Structure formats: structure tokens, C-alpha cells
């Protein structure tokens, strides 16, 4: 979807976002916009505030000041329960270690957001199988996380984030726990699928190879946008 001028509509934005852990500021007045269908990379050294920024964008954390908008909706002003509901429907979140439920199968993990949203089990499992296949892990439908490799479990976690067909996916170091080959496979599949679906993605990473998958990159330094990013990205294996 584009505006009348031909520019893409804004899917997600932040205005003057501030968040502190006690007396320690982590995000200091950050403003950004992400266009619909865009992949935005947020980079920075460890401790720069990028993961805290992503948690504010996801509605996991309520900012101390400023606002987060999903389209025209100010989600930072909504209740914790409403923000949680949004994460089960319109905003998918992927963490570094996947955070799959170890007692559940891959199919059950991916179906879970739909079941929590009130979908029938048969419909939820059908959708879950489809998304597992899209990430080429359909054969793991009956496997549980302890029996999967890191790359396999991360692809299952991304399928879970995508199963509700969210407007935005927020990924925090999605390859950070993987070797370079597994990380490349995960990123290639993630980018392919979100391009097909037209999903907006915000990708937090310290790795230059991962940030290169984005359409655009912004850099954080000490909780602020850095207009002149130095060579702070880790070029080593994630």
C-alpha cells in the first residue's frame, strides 16, 4: 500500500522514545519510521540500547516518554493486556534463542498464537503446517525443541511469529545463537518469506552480514541514533 504521492505508508514509528532501567537511561529520545514492507536493520554495539528499543516497539516495555505507533494506532498508550493481544495478532516477535515451549511439538508451538487468539485447533494446525513448510521444517512437525538443531528451532520460532500473518515482525539477534552457515540459511528464508508476504521487519543485530539483509540501516550509540556510525559491527561469526 502506498500514499497518494507514491511513497509507502508508514507501518511502524517511534517519536522521541525514552526508556530507563532505574536511573540508567537505555533509549534516549529515539525517533524512527519504518515503511510498510521495508526491512530495517538496527545496529550497534552491545549495550547501545537496540534490544530495549525493539522491546518498546513490540509493546513489551512501555516507554517512559514518547510514543510508538502501529499504523495510526498509538500502542504505547494502551494497556499491557492490549499490547499483549497485539503481539498475538499484528506484531510477531523473534528472539535470539527462539523461546519455544520445550514440552510442545513444533506444530503445537507454531499453532499456539492462533489458539490463544481463539482459532479452532484444526484451523490453527493447518496454518501451522503451512508455515513450517514455508521455512522448510515441515518434517519436524512432531519434533520437540530439545531434539532440534539451533537453526531448525529458530526457523520454527520464525514460523510461529509469522503464523498470524502480522503486519510487523520484530527480530532481536535472530542468528545470534547460530553458526554462520545456519544463520545465513535462516536469514535467506526469513527474507524470502517476508518479501512474499509483504511483511514489515525490524531487525536488531550486531553482525554486519545480517544487517546487510535490510533495505536500510540505522545505528544506535549509547541509546541515541548515531548519524556517523563507526565500524562498530562485529564481523565475526555469530
**N-end to C-end Cα span:** 35 Å
Number of strands: 10
Low-confidence spans = 1-5, 231-238
Number of helices: 7
Find the CATH topology.
Rossmann fold
Just give the CATH class.
Alpha Beta
Fraction of residues in β-strands? 25-35%
Give, in order, the helices and strands.
EEEHEEHEHHHEHEHEE
Mean of all residue-level pLDDT scores: 89
Identify the strand order in the major beta sheet. Answer: 6-7-8-3-9-10
Tell me the radius of gyration. 17 Å
Protein name: ABC transporter ATP-binding protein
Keywords: ATP-binding, Nucleotide-binding, Transport
Organism: Luteipulveratus flavus
Domain ABC transporter: 12-237
Short description:
It is built from seven helices and ten strands.
Descriptive notes:
The protein is α/β, with parallel strands linked by helices. The protein has a single domain (34-60, 78-225), classed as P-loop containing nucleotide triphosphate hydrolases (Rossmann fold, 3-Layer(aba) Sandwich), CATH 3.40.50. It is 32% helix and 25% strand. It has seven helices and ten strands. The protein has helices at residues 50-58, 80-87, 106-116, 121-134, 150-162, 180-197, 208-211; strands spanning 10-21, 24-35, 39-43, 65-70, 73-74, 91-94, 168-172, 200-205, 216-221, 224-225. The strands form two sheets. It has a six-stranded mixed beta sheet, sandwiched between helices. It has a four-stranded antiparallel beta sheet with strand order 2-1-4-5, with helices on one face. A hairpin with a 2-residue loop joins strand 1 and strand 2. Helix 3 (106-116) crosses helix 4 and helix 4 packs across helix 5 (150-162). Keywords: ATP-binding, Nucleotide-binding, Transport. GO terms for molecular function: ATP binding. Residues 12-237 form the ABC transporter domain.
Amino acid at each position: 500500500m502506498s500514499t497518494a504521492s507514491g511513497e509507502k505508508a508508514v507501518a511502524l514509528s517511534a517519536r522521541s522514545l525514552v526508556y530507563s532501567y532505574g536511573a540508567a537511561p537505555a533509549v534516549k529520545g529515539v525517533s524512527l519510521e519504518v515503511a510498510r514492507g521495508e526491512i530495517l536493520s538496527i545496529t550497534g554495539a552491545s549495550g547501545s540500547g537496540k534490544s530495549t528499543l525493539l522491546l518498546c516497539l513490540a509493546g513489551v516495555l512501555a516507554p517512559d516518554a514518547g510514543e510508538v505507533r502501529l499504523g495510526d494506532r498509538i500502542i504505547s498508550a494502551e494497556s499491557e493486556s492490549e499490547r499483549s493481544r497485539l503481539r498475538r495478532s499484528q506484531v510477531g516477535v523473534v528472539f535470539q534463542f527462539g523461546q519455544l515451549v520445550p514440552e510442545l511439538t513444533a506444530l503445537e508451538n507454531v499453532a499456539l498464537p492462533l489458539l490463544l487468539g481463539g482459532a479452532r485447533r484444526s484451523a490453527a494446525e493447518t496454518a501451522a503446517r503451512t508455515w513450517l513448510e514455508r521455512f522448510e521444517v515441515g518434517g519436524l512437525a512432531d519434533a520437540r525443541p530439545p531434539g532440534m538443531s539451533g537453526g531448525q528451532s529458530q526457523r520454527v520460532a520464525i514460523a510461529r511469529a509469522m503464523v498470524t500473518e502480522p503486519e510487523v515482525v520484530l527480530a532481536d539477534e535472530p542468528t545470534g545463537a547460530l553458526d554462520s552457515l545456519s544463520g545465513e540459511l535462516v536469514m535467506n528464508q526469513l527474507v524470502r518469506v517476508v518479501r512474499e508476504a509483504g511483511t514489515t521487519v525490524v531487525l536488531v543485530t550486531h553482525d554486519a552480514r545480517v544487517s546487510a539483509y535490510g533495505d536500510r540501516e540505522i545505528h544506535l550509540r549509547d541509546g541515541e541514533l548515531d548519524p556517523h556510525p563507526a565500524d562498530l559491527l562485529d564481523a565475526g561469526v555469530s
